[in-house]
Amino acid sequence: METRKLRKERTGVISSNKMDKTITVAIKYKEKHPIYGKFVSKTKKYHAHDEKNDCNIGDTVRIMETRPLSKLKRWRLVEVIERAK
Question: Which of 9, 20, 47, 73 could form a disulfide with 69 if both were Cys (CB 3.0 to 4.6 A apart)?
Fold first, then answer.
């Protein structure tokens, strides 16, 4: 039996849940500028599959890489870490 390779996981905050069974997760990270050496905050957005439609804007979630589910969706929701207040 073959073993699966490790899949990437990311943790971020939901910025949109207006689509059906799809959420947009914004992941913030800091990157060092190559010349000036200053750390710059950057944001990357991922579309993720939310089967139960139970997430809301502001929730902190963990997403995992998966096979392509649509034109933009390549991630799926693993768990809700913290609900928005």
Answer: 73
Q: 41-74 burial, b for 16+ CB within 10 Å, e for fewer?
A: eeeeebbbbbeeeebeeebebebeeeeeeeeebb
pTM of the model: 0.88
Nearest to 49 by CA among 63, 31, 29: 63
Both tokens of 15, joined, read: 């910025």
- Residue 63, pLDDT > 80, answer yes
Torsion angle, CA of 41/47/51/56, rounded to 10 degrees?
Answer: 50
